[in-house]
C-alpha cells in the first residue's frame, strides 16, 4: 500500500512544481510586458515632444557670440528676453523692429516670475557702440544683437530669447477661449479703430466693442488692446497692457487641458522663434509650471521723453541709466546686491553728455529718504495680536488693473 502512494505523491509534487514554474513564467512575462509598455510610452512621449519641438523656428546662437559685462552673473535666476515682432508678414528675424521688449526672470528660490518692459524708444548703446532706440537692435542684427544690447546696457546675463508676432498672440488667445479684461471707454473707442487691421493680419474676423466694460476679448481684440499707445500714457501705458495680457494668458494657460495645449503647439509653435534647445524647453516647462507670476514694471523708472537724437528721432532717456539699472536689479533680483558695472556707468555718463539730460538732485534725495524709511521700518519691532488671527491680510496687488 505504501509503495502505491509514493508515485501519487511524487506526481502531485511534480504537478505543483510545474504549476509554480508556469506562474513564474507568466509573472516574468507580465513584468517584461509592463517594462516594454513603459519604454514604448517613454519613447512615444519623447517622439511626440520632439515632433512638436520641430515646429519651432529655432535659431541657434553660439555662446561665444553672446556678450556679458565683466562680473555679471545672477545665481539662482534664469533671465530670458521676450520679443514681440512689429511685422505683418511673420518676420521674426532681423529686419523687423520689436514692438515689445520684455525681460522675464525666473526666481528659482522664491518660485516666482517677474517681468520688466523695456520702453522701445529708450536711447541705449547698440552692439556696434552707436546710440539708437532699444527696438532698433533687433532690426539691425536680429535676436543676437538685441540680447547683446540688453546685456550691455542693463548688466544682464541673457543667453536665450523667444520671439512671437501678431498672429501667434492672436491664435493663443482664441485657442484659450479669450481673456477677460476691463476696458475703458477710451480704450474701446481706439480698439474699434484698429481692430480691423489686426484681424486682417491674423486672418480672422474683426469684432468691435460697444463701450468700456469687462469683456472676454478674442484674439484680434486682445492684440489690439496690447498695442494701443495713442492714448493717455502713450507707450508707458501700452507696456502695462502688454504685461496684463501676458498675465491673463499665463493664468489660463497653466490650467488648460492637454487637448487644447496640443492645438496651441500645432498652430502657434511654427510662429515662434527661439534659441532654446529641446532640453531647455522640457526643463523650463517642468519647473515653470509651479511658479507664480509676480509683479512687473516698466524701464526706465525715472525718465524723460521728447528728446531728439540724430538718426533715432524722438527718444526716451533715462534720468541716470546707472541709477535706473540699480533699481531694475533690485526689482528683478532681490537677492543680489551688486553695484553696476563700469560698462553701464560709462554708457550712463555718455548718454548724459550726448543728450544733456542729467539726473535731478531731488531724485537722489528722494531715493535716500525712501531707503532710510525702509531701513527704519525694517528695524521697528513687529507687534502682533495673538487673538486676532488675521493681521497679515492687508497686502495690495500690483500691475495692470483688476477686474
Kindly describe this structure:
This protein is α/β, with parallel strands linked by helices and 403 residues long. Helices cover 48% and strands 18% of the residues. The chain has helices spanning 2-53, 136-154, 166-175, 185-202, 219-227, 234-253, 258-268, 278-288, 321-332, 342-355, 361-379; strands spanning 57-58, 77-85, 98-107, 112-118, 123-125, 131-133, 160-164, 179-183, 213-217, 273-274, 292-299, 303-309, 313-318. Strands 1-10-7-2-3-4-11 form a 7-stranded mixed beta sheet, sandwiched between helices. It has a two-stranded antiparallel ribbon with strand order 5-6. A hairpin with a 3-residue loop joins strand 12 (303-309) and strand 13. Helix 3 (166-175) packs across helix 5 (219-227) and helix 4 (185-202) crosses helix 5 (219-227).
Q: How much of the sequence is in beta strands? A: 15-25%
- Overall body shape: globular
Taking strands numbered 1, 2, ... along the chain, how are they ordered across the largest sheet? 1-10-7-2-3-4-11
Q: Output mean pLDDT.
A: 81
Structural category is alpha/beta
Question: Runs with pLDDT <50, length 5+?
Answer: 377-403
- The value of Rg in angstroms is 29 Å
Order of helices and strands: HEEEEEEHEHEHEHHHEHEEEHHH
Sheet of most strands = 7 strands, mixed
- Give the end-to-end Cα distance, rounded to a whole number of Å: 95 Å
Count of helical stretches: 11
Q: Helix fraction?
A: 40-55%
Number of strands: 13
Amino acid at each position: 500500500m505504501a509503495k502505491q502512494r509514493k508515485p501519487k505523491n511524487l506526481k502531485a509534487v511534480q504537478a505543483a512544481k510545474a504549476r509554480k514554474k508556469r506562474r513564474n513564467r507568466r509573472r516574468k512575462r507580465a513584468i517584461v510586458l509592463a517594462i516594454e509598455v513603459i519604454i514604448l510610452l517613454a519613447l512615444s512621449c519623447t517622439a511626440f515632444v520632439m515632433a512638436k519641438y520641430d515646429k519651432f523656428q529655432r535659431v541657434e546662437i553660439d555662446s561665444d557670440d553672446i556678450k556679458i559685462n565683466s562680473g555679471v552673473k545672477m545665481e539662482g535666476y534664469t533671465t530670458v528676453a521676450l520679443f514681440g515682432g512689429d511685422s505683418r508678414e511673420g518676420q521674426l528675424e532681423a529686419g523687423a523692429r520689436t514692438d515689445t521688449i520684455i525681460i522675464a526672470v525666473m526666481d528659482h528660490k522664491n518660485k516666482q516670475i517677474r517681468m520688466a518692459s523695456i520702453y522701445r524708444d529708450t536711447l541705449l548703446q547698440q552692439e556696434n557702440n552707436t546710440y539708437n532706440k532699444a527696438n532698433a537692435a533687433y532690426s539691425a542684427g536680429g535676436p543676437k544683437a538685441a540680447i547683446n544690447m540688453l546685456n550691455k546696457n542693463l548688466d544682464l546675463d541673457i543667453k536665450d530669447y523667444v520671439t512671437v508676432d501678431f498672429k501667434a498672440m492672436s491664435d493663443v488667445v482664441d485657442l484659450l477661449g479669450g481673456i477677460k479684461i476691463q476696458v475703458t471707454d477710451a480704450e474701446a473707442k481706439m480698439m474699434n479703430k484698429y481692430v480691423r487691421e489686426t484681424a486682417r493680419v491674423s486672418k480672422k474676423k474683426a469684432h468691435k466693442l460697444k463701450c468700456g466694460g469687462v469683456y472676454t476679448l478674442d484674439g484680434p481684440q486682445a492684440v489690439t488692446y496690447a498695442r494701443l499707445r495713442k492714448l493717455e500714457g502713450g507707450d508707458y501705458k501700452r507696456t502695462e497692457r502688454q504685461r496684463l495680457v501676458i498675465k491673463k494668458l499665463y493664468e489660463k494657460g497653466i490650467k488648460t487641458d492637454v487637448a487644447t495645449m496640443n492645438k496651441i503647439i500645432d498652430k502657434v509653435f511654427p510662429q515662434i522663434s527661439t534659441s532654446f534647445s529641446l532640453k531647455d524647453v522640457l526643463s523650463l516647462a517642468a519647473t515653470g509650471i509651479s511658479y507664480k507670476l509676480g509683479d512687473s514694471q516698466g524701464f526706465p523708472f525715472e525718465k524723460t521723453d521728447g528728446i531728439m537724437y540724430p538718426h533715432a528721432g524722438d527718444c526716451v532717456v533715462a534720468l541716470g541709466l546707472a541709477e535706473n539699472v540699480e533699481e531694475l536689479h533690485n526689482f528683478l533680483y532681490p537677492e543680489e546686491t551688486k553695484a553696476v558695472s563700469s560698462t553701464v556707468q560709462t554708457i550712463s555718463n555718455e548718454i548724459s553728455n550726448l543728450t544733456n539730460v542729467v539726473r535731478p538732485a531731488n531724485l537722489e534725495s528722494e531715493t535716500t529718504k525712501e531707503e532710510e524709511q525702509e531701513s527704519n521700518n525694517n528695524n521697528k519691532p513687529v507687534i502682533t495680536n495673538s487673538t486676532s488671527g488675521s493681521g497679515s491680510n492687508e497686502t495690495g496687488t500690483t500691475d495692470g488693473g483688476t477686474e
